[in-house]
Amino acid sequence: MKGIVFTEFLDLVEAKFGLEMVDKIITESNLESNGVYTSVGTYQFSEMLQLLQHLSQNTNISIDDLLLVYAEHFFAVLAESYPGLIDSYKDPIEMLASIENHIHIEVRKIYPDAELPNFEVIEKTENSLVMIYKSSKSMHYFGLGLMNKTFEHFNSTATIQLEKIKKDGTEVKFIIQKN
């Protein structure tokens, strides 16, 4: 997993819960990196899981809810760092439908060894989208948060349903209906 995911996560934890919480979740975790991350480095997903689990335990906020909040933060980082990528779209459905064929291609140009989930578009209309998320990591709530922020970015709303295809969340169907 790319280091930017870790550095931004710890920035969010510091902003929301304080530097003491950052120190606490790093100390409570058994991290190969010792909690030292660079945005361009590559780290084990297990480290993110440990940080999330300890933050959840210390705040009584579910991991899914933490991933939603983190995705909102991360979207803002992406929008600020790569405005041309997001601004090339005029509609949230178009943007979400192009994750695999455009956005992930651009991400791989910046981070060639990034492990990205796969989004397969099953059905698309002007106001709806059905996609299958597949990943070796269960981060579908992070994806949901990014989708929510995509609609917000375009001053729009949507109803997004999740249907777990695999119980562990590594394969999920997103059913999106623009309001």
UniProtKB/TrEMBL annotation:
InterPro entries linked: H-NOX_domain_sf, Heme_NO-bd, NO_sig/Golgi_transp_ligand-bd
Superkingdom of this protein's organism: Bacteria
Domain called Heme NO-binding: residue spans: 2-161
Pfam families on file: HNOB
Name under which the protein is recorded: Heme NO-binding domain-containing protein
Species whose genome carries this gene: Formosa undariae
Lineage: Bacteria, Pseudomonadati, Bacteroidota, Flavobacteriia, Flavobacteriales
